[in-house]
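Slide 14.
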Amino acid sequence: MSKILKVENLEEMINYQEGSVVSKILIGKKNGTVTLFSFDKGQVLSEHTAPFDAMVEILDGKAAITVSGTEYNLEKRDMLIMPADEPHALRADEKFKMLLTMIK
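Slide 15: predicted structure.
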């Protein structure tokens, strides 16, 4: 039996919500996840670590991502790889959407 495949537009798969961070897991496996996020302007994720390497791709808007004390300003179509176990934080300088891929 074959699987039904569907083409999706990542930006349209998740909406902004005023004053909030919204997430939608697209793939959740033991070895990693792929998650869509939308951040309203001013929202933050405080500094934390993760046991996985992570790739962030900005789909819309602008974000400031700090990894091990260095701030990176990303905008639509930018990508950043964050190594496992390194402290990182995110700040929405304006509304933004991102795709986060984490792999063990």
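Speaker note: The chain has no helices and eight strands.
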